[in-house]
Amino acid sequence: MDSKKPLILLVEDDDIDAFIVNTMLPKFCEQCDIKRVRNGAEATEYFKNTENERPSVVLLDLIMPFMGGKEFLAEMGKDDELKQLPVVVLSSSSSSYDRLECVELGVAKYFVKPLTPDISKEILEMAFVA
After folding, report:
1. Alpha carbon 35 to chain centroid, angstroms
2. Do residues 74 and 45 touch, judged by C-beta distance below 8 A?
3. Cα separation of 37 and 43, whole Å?
């Protein structure tokens, strides 16, 4: 396995949800790095900067200001390299319509908040496989 630490790009506007992710994931993966941006527009800018490290997995909220998760997924889908990155949605929406739309946009997994230990482990498995 690559000696490089897995990087998780957290796209989340809510400070409490971001705190939970930054508290929960390191319990299962001390060597993981988590980089947070607050919305899809910031995530888009993150990827435009070629000096930024490519994440192993993107952990994405759906409902955010400026550019929501679905809009960001649509932007990612336009880039052949970016659409290969695994994306995990962690949203407060349990709507079957949102789930279906996200699957159509290429999401690897869709989970409803809150983040649990089992969800954390699945996200980290994806980070190590990528």
Report:
1. 10
2. no
3. 6
Query: What predicted TM-score, i.e. pTM, was given to this entire model?
Result: 0.91
Q: Give the Cα-Cα-Cα angle 36, 41, 42 (nearest 5 degrees).
A: 30
The backbone torsions φ and ψ at residue 78, rounded to the nearest 5 degrees and listed phi first, read -80, -15
| Residue 68 burial class via C-beta count within 10 angstroms: exposed 0-12, middle 13-18, buried 19 and up | buried
The DSSP result for the chain, as a single string, is: --SSPPEEEEE---HHHHHHHHHHHHHH-TT-EEEEESSHHHHHHHHH-TTSPPPSEEEE-S--SSS-HHHHHHHHTTSTTGGGS-EEEEES---HHHHHHHHHTT-SEEEESSP-HHHHHHHHHHHHH-
**The residue to which tokens 């899809």 are assigned:** 40
Residues 76-123 have pLDDT tens digits of 989 888 888 999 999 999 999 999 999 999 999 999 998 989 999 888
The greatest distance separating any two alpha carbons of the chain, rounded to the nearest whole angstrom, comes to: 39
